[in-house]
Amino acid sequence: MQWQIHGERPIYESPWVNLWFVEVQQPDGRRWEHHVVRMRHLAVAAIVDEQKRVLMMWRHRFITDTWAWELPMGLIEEDETPEEAAIREAREETGWRVEGVKPLIYAQPANGITDSEHYVFRAEAVEYVGPPTELNESDRVEWIPIADLKGMIDRKEIVSSGSLVGVLYLLLDEVTGGVS
To answer: Which helix (H) or strand (E) holds 79?
Structure first.
C-alpha cells in the first residue's frame, strides 16, 4: 500500500520552511496534490548531569502563545552533522559545554505532512562556560530532576515534539536501567 509520487512543485520557499505540492497516487488509484512542508532537520540535546537532572529552558513560543520547558535544540546547518549541531545548540542556548554526546533517539514528528527529522542526543554536562549567546531563546535555564519529568508532561509543561521525545526516552532509560 505504497503511495506513488508523480511530480512535485514548490509553492513557497525560504531558508526556514518550504511548502510544496506533491502529486500523489494512493493505492486505490486516486491522484491528487498533497501539501508537503519541507524543513531543515533538527538536533536536540538532552544534557544530563551526575545528579540525574536534565538541563531545560523555560521559553515562550509565539506561534501557540504558550510557555513550556524545552531541551536545547535547533536547525542543523548545511556544514555540520546532527551531533555537531546538538553540541553547538547546547552551548549557544544554555552556556554549557558538553561531552559524551551519543544518539538517544531519532524521530519524524509529523511525517504525514513534513519531512522534518529530529536527531536527539544525550550529552553529559562538563562545564558552564558563560551565559547563553542566544539571548532570545529562553527566559531561564534550569536543571530539572529526571524524576520530575513525567509530572511536567502530565501538566503540559513539556509539549514540543523534540523535547517530549527526548525526555520520554530519558524516562524509559530510567525505568529499564538503560537496557533496550
So the answer is: none
